[in-house]
């Protein structure tokens, strides 16, 4: 027993030595053992830690893949591009290589599934509202990085979908007036997607974006722990504290949420393993069939679609035709008009008129192709405006009215339909009957309207009073 | 309130589930391939592949000694299957030069290592496509090779297995597609000149060949599934333990 | 962890003595199974550091044609990326092995890395041909051939002929045996090899029946 005590003593001394030089104990307390999280987290609150888990998976598997992968578009002796062959080398010749590669490829899709659900949680419970605007903005930046990371990484296997996907997306930039064509050449470093493109995309995928991503994830967490977590009731637990200054509805993140998230992580890993070990191609959505054919710059595959996680935005791009510009014009007019009618400030009125006029002129003068690209990018950026668009007196959907619940449901359905349509070839019809194009156009409008009209419907909504304390069990 | 959360959850999941399986009308109906990944089928498939495919097509990601995984010894591989390689660790490269091949067939015959994975589509698995394709050659004098194919119209490849299957003729009919358009549809394929094998025997041989090509696309697939069960078993135990642990801690939270 | 006081919401603070033992057992079980799963997860990553099938194929046996090799000449072939020497020894060279015996660290090659079918002072299947891996057992440099005996070699009057490592001066005789008090601890390794005919040798494959 005394031996045990001296050992404990020694440990405390060592910890004290470190603490005098580095805030280990205080960091541990601030972020784990004395970070008080609301005790009423539900299902939707698991996806943050799961996203972190997937991030770690991607980084670790990525490091090991880089040890064997070669970003080289030259043909080897058998006439196969070296990059493509090196992926198959990993799948066949490297011991354990196939597991590592499937973990990485499945992880990419899992990342987006987890992050989309994490973002949906924000929409449900108003996690973007004051004082969590920066948490939300860092999150949007993470999402943008993730899209970049996925896009750059998708070129690396150098299959048909890799090459042609990059070709299409890089050519989007060619739509930008004046500088566009030169810009797309600048991005590729060549007149076509080539070895130069592959090498720079490799550099972005394995080091540039991951560094930014890690910085943003840290900022996201620091900002979150500064303001504290939101919860399904959307009430601030910091308003009600006990005599020790601890929130009455809070529990220490460690051990309570570490054990809870630990269990959830294992369940997640089981689902993840089912894909990795029994369906790594994910029905052609996680690994596209055509990507098992090496990139051929002379022949586009018959059906080319982005990977599933980009398809909602890609659908909006495709829906933006010259006819659709009339709809956009009408939308701009209505939103501009509403702003003018509902504000008292002269400056805001003038701004609204100005912006609407510029938009209308732009819709008339510039190609629909340009606006397609702008809308695709803009449809992601719109999420960043949510903290200021939402004018509801309450945060959570539990206390918002039927109006918001319906609008959110319509938004989700529109988003999913856009996603499905984006995976289909043009001319697709649901059940062979309902043509896809008008559905995509309607869904695009609904998507935009969710954001554009939020300042009004969020105020009109019949809300219920928030409770004083969180509701639980 | 809780009900609303759950309803939204169900909504998200169900929209995806309901709409996604809906497919566009298929242009082509593929026969389902009876893939068998047992050693006997795979060994027969390997023999067929080496004798009938490897002259023109490479399998440049597959090393000969990988065939030990389907129950062959290195000696058997060397003596029976290696015609164009010296070492058993070499990959199944093709003897034909790419430039020559391009000259003869118009396109260089593609590498076949991954063809079973690449040919999968909404119409069926890659194996289904291959099984239908290899049984779908018919005589067509308008083609330079004298052959055409029902699933790969105007294919550059002649019927490599014709000595086994014999010659087929395709009967087409013109039908109304239901929307007032007249479309040419395949009615049936008929054997006009029998080959060495009866049709059922030929189908069985093609099934073995396709099985081998499926195996070749991912030699680790059997290991992958086996390991999967082990991983799931281990994670299940861990899931139970972490759940109990979570419950042990959370019983104090009121 | 053991004497944590867990502050729980509602001001209810409690010490977890009551639940301590069951929690600790659960924690131990979870840690054990979690650790085992962790080791399993690490396995493919660790395995990926092993030589790949490509590296193994590159390390396949090498066949050497000896017909052109004159007595007293040496030939170097690559096997698994390493130099393998084949020296066709003259009767004088074989004689020199007896002379060097007294100066060697391990004349019987008891510690040396060599197949069982390589025996005696000559360390060869056929005494005429020495087959050995030309990498010094000290730090892996490739020694230079110094076949000429005596003062002419520039090494010493009593030099029986052999190999000298340029890096740290280790000396080996014409059977690849290391001299006493040299930086190199052991004799040069003999790779597995076998003769398919009188003049054809396979390096990397053991003699059958051995």
Into which percent range does the helicity of residues of chain A fall? 55-70%
Tell me what the CATH architecture of the largest domain in chain C is. 3-layer Sandwich
Stretches with pLDDT under 50, minimum 5 residues of chain A: none
Overall 3D form of chain C:
elongated
Helix content of chain C: 10-25%
Rounded Rg of chain C: 29 Å
> What is the count of DSSP helices of chain A, taking H or I runs of 4+ residues?
18
Strand order of the largest sheet of chain A: 1-2
- What count of domains describes the coordinates of chain C? 2
Largest sheet of chain C: 3 strands, antiparallel
Give the integer mean of the pLDDT values of chain A: 94
User: What's the order of the H and E elements of chain A?
Assistant: HHEHHHHHHHEHHHHHHHEEHH
Order of helices and strands of chain C: EEHHEEEHEEEEEE
For the biggest β-sheet of chain C, the strand order reads: 3-11-10
CATH topology of the largest domain in chain C: Rieske Iron-sulfur Protein
Termini separation of chain C:
61 Å
The biggest chain-chain interface is: A-B, 62 and 57 residues
Count the beta strands of chain A: 4
Count of strand segments of chain C:
11
Distance between the termini of chain A: 43 Å
Description:
- The complex is a heterotrimer of chains A (473), B (254) and C (210).
- With 473 residues, chain A is mainly α.
- Chain A has 18 helices and four strands.
- Chain A has helices at residues 2-21, 24-33, 47-66, 82-92, 97-125, 133-155, 160-172, 180-188, 195-227, 253-278, 311-319, 324-342, 346-365, 368-381, 386-389, 402-423, 436-452, 454-460, and strands at residues 36-38, 250-252, 429-430, 434-435.
- The longest helix of chain A is centred in the middle third of the chain and has 33 residues, at 195-227.
- Chain A is globular and about 75 Å long.
- With 254 residues, chain B is α+β, with helices and mostly antiparallel strands.
- Chain B has a single domain (22-245), classed as Cytochrome Bc1 Complex, Chain D, domain 2.
- A two-stranded antiparallel ribbon of chain B has the order 1-2.
- In chain B, strand 3 and strand 4 form a beta hairpin.
- Mean pLDDT of chain B is 86; it is low at 16-26.
- Chain C contains three helices and eleven strands, in the order E-E-H-H-E-E-E-H-E-E-E-E-E-E.
- At the A-B interface, helix 4, helix 5, helix 10, helix 16 and strand 3 of A face helix 1, strand 1 and helix 9 of B.
């Amino acid at each position: 027993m005394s031996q045990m005590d001296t050992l404990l003593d020694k440990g405390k001394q060592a910890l004290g030595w470190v603490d005098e030089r580095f805030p280990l104990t205080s960091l541990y307390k601030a972020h784990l053992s004395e970070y008080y999280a609301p005790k009423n987290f539900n299902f939707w609150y698991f996806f943050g830690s799961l996203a972190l888990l997937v991030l770690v998976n991607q980084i670790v598997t990525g490091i090991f893949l880089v040890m064997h992968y070669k970003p080289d578009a030259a043909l080897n002796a058998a006439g196969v591009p070296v990059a493509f062959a090196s992926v198959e080398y990993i799948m066949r010749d490297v011991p354990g290589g196939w597991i590592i590669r499937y973990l990485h490829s499945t992880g990419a899709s899992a990342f987006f599934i987890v992050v989309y659900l994490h973002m949906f949680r924000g929409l449900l419970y108003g996690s973007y509202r004051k004082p969590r605007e920066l948490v939300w903005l860092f999150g949007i930046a993470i999402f943008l990085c993730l899209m970049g990371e996925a896009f750059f990484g998708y070129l690396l296997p150098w299959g048909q979908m890799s090459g042609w996907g990059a070709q299409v997306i890089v050519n989007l930039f060619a739509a930008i007036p004046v500088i566009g064509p030169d810009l797309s050449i600048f991005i590729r470093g060549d007149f076509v997607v080539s070895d130069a493109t592959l090498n720079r995309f490799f550099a972005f995928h394995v080091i540039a974006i991951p560094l930014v991503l890690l910085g943003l994830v840290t900022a996201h967490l620091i900002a979150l722990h500064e303001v504290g977590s939101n919860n399904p009731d959307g009430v601030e637990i910091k308003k009600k504290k006990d005599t020790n200054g601890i929130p009455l509805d809070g529990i220490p993140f460690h051990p309570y949420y570490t054990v809870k998230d630990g269990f959830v992580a294992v369940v997640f890993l089981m689902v993840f393993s089912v894909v990795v070990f029994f369906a790594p191609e994910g029905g052609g959505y996680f690994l596209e069939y055509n990507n098992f054919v090496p990139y051929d710059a002379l022949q586009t595959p018959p059906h080319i679609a982005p990977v599933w996680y980009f398809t909602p935005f890609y659908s909006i791009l495709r829906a933006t035709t010259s006819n659709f510009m009339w709809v956009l014009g009408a939308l701009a007019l209505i939103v501009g008009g509403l702003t003018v009618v509902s504000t008292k400030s002269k400056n805001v009125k003038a701004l609204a008129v100005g912006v609407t006029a510029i938009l209308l002129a732009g819709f008339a003068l510039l190609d629909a192709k340009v606006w397609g690209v702008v809308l695709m990018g803009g449809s992601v950026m719109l999420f960043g405006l949510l903290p200021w668009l939402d004018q509801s007196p309450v945060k959570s959907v539990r206390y918002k009215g039927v109006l918001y619940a319906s609008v959110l449901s319509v938004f989700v359905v529109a988003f999913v339909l856009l996603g499905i349509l984006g995976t289909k070839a043009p001319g697709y019809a649901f059940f062979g009957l309902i043509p896809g194009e008008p559905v995509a156009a309607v869904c695009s409008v609904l998507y935009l309207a969710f954001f554009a009209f939020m300042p009004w419907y969020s105020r009109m909504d019949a809300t219920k009073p928030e409770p004083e304390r969180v509701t639980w069990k | 309130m809780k009900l609303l959360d759950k309803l939204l959850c169900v909504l998200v999941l169900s929209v995806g589930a309901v709409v996604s399986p809906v497919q566009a009308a298929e242009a082509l109906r593929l026969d389902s391939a009876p893939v068998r990944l047992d050693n006997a089928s795979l060994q027969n498939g390997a023999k067929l592949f080496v004798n009938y495919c490897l002259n023109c097509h490479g399998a440049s990601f597959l090393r000969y000694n990988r065939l030990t995984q389907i129950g062959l010894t290195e000696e058997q591989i060397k003596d029976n299957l290696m015609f164009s390689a010296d070492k058993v660790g070499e990959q199944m490269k093709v003897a034909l030069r790419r430039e020559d091949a391009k000259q003869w067939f118009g396109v260089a015959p593609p590498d076949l290592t991954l063809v079973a994975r690449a040919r999968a589509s909404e119409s069926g698995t890659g194996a289904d496509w291959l099984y239908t394709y290899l049984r779908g050659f018919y005589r067509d004098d308008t083609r330079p090779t004298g052959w055409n194919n029902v699933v790969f119209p105007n294919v550059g490849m002649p019927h490599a297995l014709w000595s086994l299957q014999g010659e087929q003729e395709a009967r087409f009919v013109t039908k109304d597609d239901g929307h007032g358009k007249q479309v040419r549809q395949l009615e049936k394929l008929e054997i006009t000149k029998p080959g060495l094998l009866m049709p059922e025997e030929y189908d069985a041989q093609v099934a073995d060949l396709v099985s081998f090509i499926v195996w070749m696309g991912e030699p680790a697939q059997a290991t992958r599934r086996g390991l999967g069960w082990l991983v799931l078993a281990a994670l299940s135990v861990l899931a139970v333990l972490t759940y109990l642990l979570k419950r042990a801690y959370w019983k104090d939270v009121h | 962890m053991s004497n944590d006081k867990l502050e729980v919401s509602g001001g209810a603070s409690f010490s977890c003595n009551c639940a301590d033992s069951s929690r600790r057992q659960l924690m131990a079980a979870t840690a054990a199974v979690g650790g085992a799963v962790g080791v399993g997860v690490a396995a493919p990553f660790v395995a990926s550091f092993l030589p790949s099938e490509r590296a193994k194929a590159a390390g396949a046996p090498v066949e050497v044609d000896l017909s052109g090799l004159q007595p007293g000449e040496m030939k170097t072939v690559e096997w698994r990326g390493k130099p393998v020497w084949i020296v066709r020894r003259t009767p004088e060279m074989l004689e020199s092995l007896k002379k060097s015996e007294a100066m060697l660290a391990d004349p019987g090659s008891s510690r040396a890395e060599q197949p069982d079918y390589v025996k005696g002072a000559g360390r060869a299947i056929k005494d005429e041909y020495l087959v050995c891996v030309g990498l010094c057992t000290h730090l892996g440099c490739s020694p230079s051939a110094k076949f000429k005996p005596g003062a002419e070699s520039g090494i010493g009057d009593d030099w029986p002929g052999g190999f000298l490592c340029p890096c740290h001066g280790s000396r080996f005789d014409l059977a690849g045996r290391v001299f006493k008090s040299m930086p190199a601890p052991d004799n040069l390794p003999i790779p597995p090899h076998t003769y398919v005919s009188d003049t054809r040798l396979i390096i990397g494959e053991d003699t059958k029946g051995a």
